[in-house]
């Protein structure tokens, strides 16, 4: 398998995600889903008019560029965590190694959640006021970003073990809930449109 998930064909990526291996998993899927949502957002913005649409397209491109490498970063963070847990139990550095690696399994999905939340906001604006012919694409972007934000938030929750990390979990869950609300609003707005 190539070093980066980004070097896989779509078929290879799907096969890798389905394989009995720890990664790619939910974090990589959330990152790539956010990137796809950002791509759709950029497309919808490019079919809209005005300076605000141009800024939205540029920001969507920036978000896509920021989130895409997090697919590999998430896999690396999880590999580091597994390696730390496999250290001998009597290793004096084991507990700190596990704690440090676990922080990585929280930090990467936290960043994915933030980026997905921002993509959802931009896409929701485009679904609401962009080119009506691209409403479906903008709405798809909102839904994808909301799913990615929620997924990443739950991955954080799975790795939180103390109160200091609980704040990160709670913040991520709030972002996911906000993105889901935007997705629901986009769905409601689209219900009245004819195909």
Low-confidence stretches: none
Alpha carbon gap, first and last residue? 42 Å
Q: Could you give the order of the helices and strands?
A: HHHHHHH
Would you report the number of β strands?
A: 0
Radius of gyration: 18 Å
The general outline is elongated
Overview features:
195 residues, mainly alpha
3D structure, described in words:
- The relative contact order is 0.15.
- The chain has helices at residues 10-18, 26-46, 51-67, 70-85, 94-129, 135-159, 163-191.
- It has 195 residues and is mainly alpha-helical.
- The model has no long low-confidence stretch (mean pLDDT 92).
- It contains 7 helices and no strands.
Blueprint (SSEs and pairs):
Blueprint: H1 10-18, H2 26-46, H3 51-67, H4 70-85, H5 94-129, H6 135-159, H7 163-191
Task: Give a short summary of the structure.
By secondary structure, this protein is an all-alpha fold. 78% of the residues lie in helices and 0% in strands.
